[in-house]
Amino acid sequence: MPPTYDCADADARRDGLAAAARAVRAGRLVVLPTDTVYGLGCDAFSATAVRSLLKAKNRGPDMPVPVLVGSWSTIDGLVLGVPRTARQLIEAFWPGGLSLVLPHAPSLAWDLGSTKGTVMLRMPLHPVALELLRDVGPMAVSSANISGSPAPATMGGALEQLGEKVAVYLDGGDSGDPVASTIVDLTGDEPLVLRQGAVTIDEVREVLGRTVLTA
Fold it and tell me: Which domain holds residue 133?
């Protein structure tokens, strides 16, 4: 059975974060709490690790893996350019339930799936996730479930589905009712909401003060 760490306990949290960081750097998979659902994560720059993540979920590269970051500034090194609309949304909703799709920097050596030159980025509002991300850097993170099964709101739910495919499980408690992040595509002429979740379309429009399209 893979090790699990109760992050409500200070000593266990410290040990768990250290174990998770070692696992990520070794190209292995970890389960971590986020502000939406539990996530299955790995080093975003390890193509082998990302393939392992997709295999663990029984998912193909046609559904690219999003990337979580631990700070606003991290995005600058990951994308081709940060438009004003992205800055406005980051300042309003990060950390939180908003994902942004932007053209990724062509120099990056990563393979997140069939991204067509884009990357979906988010900064989660969860202290355990942020601490790990600030230690290891950007992580490819998808919901910690087998594709087609419910996304888990507890570590136990993730463990039940993924078992020994994961090296380390971090238990951050119940995340509550699963709520997906809102996804805004900023690769076109107008912002496009691909999925409404934790942040409403009206909130996005209010921050940007301009037309926002919906898919």
Answer: 4-214
